[in-house]
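Hi U.,

Before I forget, here's the chain from the pilot set. I'm dumping it here mostly so it's searchable later in email.
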Amino acid sequence: MRCLIVGCGRVGSALANLLDADGHEVIVLDENPNAFKRLGQKFHGHAVVGNGIDYDVLKSAGAATADGFVAVTEGDNRNIMAALIAQRMFKIKRIVARIYDPPRGQMYRELGVETVCPTTVGAKLIRDRLVEAPWDGSQPFDFGRLTAVTATVAGEAAGRRVGEIEEPGRIRIAAIRRAPGKVVVATEDAVLEAGDEVHAIVAPDAISNFAKFFGESARAEIPA
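Structure:
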């Protein structure tokens, strides 16, 4: 899929990297050239400086041949204008716009523009957690008892079995991304290869043990 993303903030850059890792062709458009630093060195897509509601800029960025379009700038009006231009002038079928104001989101969905409202999504998640029954006060990811960590395999970790790195109740490797679009559930006998990206759940007192294998590539997963 060829995807055009307008806005290279935390969400836009994270989405761009996810799509890029899955093998899609990604173009990111932003008015601020410094914003593209968020994409990192592993990003293989294209970065275009320009205004996301300018027809000529969108055309030069490849909107005419895009399969998907996402507008995630900081402004609702800008996101909707960009989405409507993509829909009506470039005839892009798959369009998603981020809208902070819930009533606006519903209105534009009725016009055929799919919207995501962080305000509504966040409120529903908090409500569901708050009234969840039975109440579980030991939610690990929310209360810091465990940490979701990703790391890139290199050096000492390459060639080792997952079972050699795991520690019962302290380190659990859940998944391995071996190639764009290829993610597998980790097993104890799986052998790690250089360049693999591992996703693990690690207890706070075991992070240093985990880092012995993966060094500086180990990093906590923080939602964008």
